[in-house]
Amino acid sequence: MTTSFSHLSLAEPLARAVAEMGYESMTPIQAQAIPVVLTGKDVMGAAQTGTGKTAAFSLPLLQRLLKHENSSTSPARHPVRALVLLPTRELADQVAQQIKLYAKYTNLRSAVVFGGMDMKPQTAELKRGVEVLVATPGRLLDHIEAKNAVLNQVEYVVLDEADRMLDIGFLPDLQRILSYLPKQRTTLLFSATFSPEIKRLAGSYLQDPVTIEVARSNATASTVAQHFYGVNDDNKRHALHQVLRRHGIKQAFVFVNSKLGCARLARALDHDGLKTAALHGDKSQDERLKALDAFKKGEVDLLVCTDVAARGLDIKDVPAVFNMDIPFNAEDYVHRIGRTGRAGASGLAVSFVGGSNDARLVAEIEKLINKKIEVEALEFDEDRPRGRINDGRRMYNREGQDPRQAAENQGRERDRERERDRRPQQRAHGAPRDPFFDQPYQAPSLSPDAAPAWEAAAKAAPAARAISSNIKPKRKVAALFKAAQPVVS
Ligand code: AMP
């Protein structure tokens, strides 16, 4: 199978946009799905975000809509022809921005509607007429009820991240939306897994779909050092501080399993003096976009988030990922830690194992990534016998740094600087010039000497840290369970 875009016979405006994006060859999902979608067949695709899935459905869809392209200002000449449904606001925005880039040399209009934002500007855009409408289900229903969106001329519907939509409980909304669409249409369904629920959904709404499965990447990059530490819930925050300081980490994703846990942890870390933002479903749209933007600019050190809020976001190359909770789905573990250790850079993935179900969840991860996981004991600094290491005074308790630690940190910082310098050239070929979500992650432009916020916080209040009610400094934390061999990377 050829992987060059030039073999697709894309219309010139689309081919030009693709060339401008710097895409050299098709990704596997693109190579398989684009020719099928171009024929107008239904597709059931197993592919995750990050595989180039958006272009896989939107390029052929735009190509087929070109016959409707016109420059008339009349809204009647621009009915909704394609509907793309996604589970979260961030994903909807990200996909809409990509579609805008692919369609930029055509007269096809696109728009995005999602909740948490004023309906008025969305209404005005819908009333002007759009051919491609990207939406989250709830807000789309609001617009349908307000008669802002008329869907009787829809020819294509894309159910993207369908498994997540079902997880969130969007099935009734989806069923209602699909009932407004013409029966004669092409339906494309993308999902990370083909669970029985997804198969039922496909059975009800797809006709003779072509199944496309790209080899799922369950592999974790060898550049990511994975550590699992046995830490009980009360000590996890302390453990996080400790690993951050020990590794001189300046920015990290911190994953938790629940919205409530996310909000609580972010507040607590903020209280500890770290620049922290939370990303979860209960945050307003504005807060979520601001949090992401601040993290990308390096104004925020820790982005504490849930899987649903963070899934698919195009933020990569973060120095470290923490799993405060072991994810319920082993696949989410692969997603989470895939945000670090990209492009040959070394990354750190630290998971805290402490919940009652964690042994089972870790075993599932072990099976998925096909690597033995050893749960290590995390020795807290306060536990170290005084006089053995630095006279018992750790780096963050001193005015100056421990020279060995400082040299190690400097070495790491130099590596990171080198990586930072290399990154723009590597990305120039592959990444779009998306103004927001598709901006590649850039490490903050901190001076190499700048201490991470947690060091400053620790220096500022070492006593408070030691006597925090959440911290039991004298306690050694034992491994919850043992495995024969260490993680093989
Ligand atoms: P997606 O899975 O659609 O969210 O795409 C993930 C990232 O891959 C986005 O930043 C896209 O711009 C980028 N991308 C998509 N297709 C290609 C391609 N053929 N070559 C290089 N980058 C791509």
From TrEMBL:
Alphabetized PROSITE patterns for the sequence: DEAD_ATP_HELICASE, HELICASE_ATP_BIND_1, HELICASE_CTER, Q_MOTIF
The record's annotation in CDD domains points to:
DEADc, SF2_C_DEAD
Q: Which GO terms describe its molecular function?
A: helicase activity
In this chain, composition skew of type Low complexity spans: 448-461
- Compositional bias annotation for Basic and acidic residues: 385-402, 410-424
Top-level taxon in the UniProt lineage: Bacteria
Segments carrying the region annotation (Disordered) are: 385-461
Write out the residue ranges of the motif Q motif.
Answer: 3-31
What are the protein's UniProt keywords? ATP-binding, Helicase, Hydrolase, Nucleotide-binding
Which parts of the sequence belong to the Helicase ATP-binding domain?
A: 34-212
Query: Where does the DEAD-box RNA helicase Q domain lie?
Result: 3-31
UniProt cross-references to InterPro entries, sorted A to Z: DEAD/DEAH_box_helicase_dom (IPR011545), DEAD/DEAH_RhlB (IPR044742), DEAD_box_RNA_helicase (IPR050079), Helicase_ATP-bd (IPR014001), Helicase_C-like (IPR001650), P-loop_NTPase (IPR027417), RNA-helicase_DEAD-box_CS (IPR000629), RNA_helicase_DEAD_Q_motif (IPR014014)
Please give the Gene3D superfamilies that the UniProt record associates with this protein.
P-loop containing nucleotide triphosphate hydrolases (3.40.50.300)
Q: Where is the Helicase C-terminal domain?
A: 223-386
Q: Which Pfam families match?
A: DEAD, Helicase_C
State the family it belongs to: Belongs to the DEAD box helicase family.
Its name, as the record gives it, is: DEAD/DEAH box helicase
The organism's taxonomy opens as: Bacteria, Pseudomonadati, Pseudomonadota, Betaproteobacteria, Burkholderiales
